[in-house]
Amino acid sequence: MWALRFEHVTKQYRTGAGYRSLRQEMTDRTDRPASRPALHNVSFEVEEGEAFAVIGPNGAGKSTALRIAARVTGPTSGCVRVRGRVGALIEVGAGIHPELTGRENIWLYGAILGLKRRDIAARFDAIVDFAELGDVLDRPVKRYSSGMQLRLGFSIAAGVEPDVLVVDEALAVGDARFQVRCLDRMGALVRSGTTVVYVSHDLASVGASCTRAALLVDGGLATVGPVTETLAAYIGWLEQQGSQGTGAVVFDADGQPQTSVASGAEMVIRVPLRSAHLGAVTIALGIRDGHPWNVLGSVTTVPAGSALDHIDCRIDAVPLTAGLYQIWVSLDGDDRDGRWRQLGSFRVTEPHPQPRPLWIPAVAFVHEWRTR
Predict the structure, then answer these.
(1) Does the pLDDT at position 337 exceed 50?
(2) Are residues 329 and 340 in contact, defined by beta-carbon separation less than 8 angstroms?
(3) Predicted confidence (pLDDT) at residue 245 exceeds the cutoff of 50
(4) pTM (2 decimals)?
(5) Pairing relation of β-strands 164-167 and 195-199?
(6) Pairing between strand 249-251 and 267-272?
(7) Are 358 and 255 in contact (CB under 8 A)?
(8) 120: enclosing H helix or E strand
(9) C-alpha angle with apex 67: 64 to 70, nearest 5 degrees?
(10) Are 42 and 193 in contact, with CB atoms under 8 Å apart?
């Protein structure tokens, strides 16, 4: 039996002019800003007690779909049906009143979901323990850091034991330890019968924690089905887009452009430069596996006066396990604020064609198993 059903859902947002007053809405029907579809005719079902992922590139409509599922906003057309209470962590601080204390927010959230006071009281200590915020529980949430707000928000959303838990990419704000705890908690909820709908760019965690998934591209449903098949479809789409990125190109040992490489093979990453107009440039290169940190990285400096349009980083033997990886770069002097920006992506295809389980690390190492 389904717990969440999307029926031909379309959601449009207005673009151009900003907010309109009530008087304008009531009297002016001609000068309306154009609208853009965030979702277009999307239909799928999530079964009760299922761990379901919504994946896709940035701007695909994933967060919009989850906001509709969480009843934060409604569809422009179509229908979304949900059975039971919905707990949601859509973004850091969402559903939390900044002027109230952590304690007061727990009581407020439970009351909004229709829980009785005795039910909230029965869950209260477990929520506080999971959030690890007992020492600041009576402090206004507006004085919490973003990480503390995240811990409180997830702990409340999961701790009230909803029938459907909706979790967006806000988990990326938390530290690695808390992310693992959240994934463990979501797994426990699924085993107890709760339906979990999860959005993430971390394909390893999606493959390890979910059984089915939906792939959204440009607001439309590209495919829905078993998680391994949906991940394979997404990786295939990313490979098609890989050569159309904003800069870095991956080459093999023969100098041929590639979108995938084998673990242990030689690989060259080409980073575009504009150093003819600059002084010395420090280049930081990072490779990530969906998390907001580098699993591999290197730094070099191009001397002033070097009229180069690109620089190559050659990796003799790719020390990565199978999966999808992103190339990030920070050019100190070219990118004035020094922020990291993504240049492209590539796939490591061996030794296994499917995305690695979450318990297998991204970095491979030369080793040998022996028995006496």
Answers:
(1) no
(2) yes
(3) no
(4) 0.67
(5) parallel
(6) antiparallel
(7) no
(8) helix 117-131
(9) 150
(10) no
Number of C-beta neighbours around residue 21 at 10 A: 9
**pLDDT beyond 80 at 170:** no
Give me the DSSP letters along 275-297: GGGSS-EEEEEEEESSSSS-SEE
What does the alpha-carbon distance between residue 138 and residue 126 come to, in Å, rounded to a whole number? 16
The contacts of residue 355 (CB under 8 Å, 6+ apart) are 203, 204, 206, 207, 228, 231, 235, 322, 323, 324
Report CA torsion sign: 151, 153, 158, 160. positive
Q: In terms of DSSP bridges, do strands 212-217 and 220-226 run parallel, antiparallel, or are they unpaired?
A: antiparallel
What the block records as the tokens of 120 is 């909230």
Residue that has been written with the tokens 């990453």 in this structure: 269
Q: pLDDT confidence of 341, banded at 50, 70, 90?
A: confident
- Residue 286 backbone class (left: φ over 0; alpha: ψ -120 to 50; beta: rest): beta
Lowest mean pLDDT among 5-14, 33-42, 337-346: 337-346
Between CA 42 and CA 6 the distance in angstroms is 7
215-234 average pLDDT score: 91
**Neighbour order of strands in the sheet with 281-288:** 260-261, 341-348, 323-332, 281-288, 296-302
Share of the chain above pLDDT 70, in %: 78
Residue with tokens 């959204």: 216
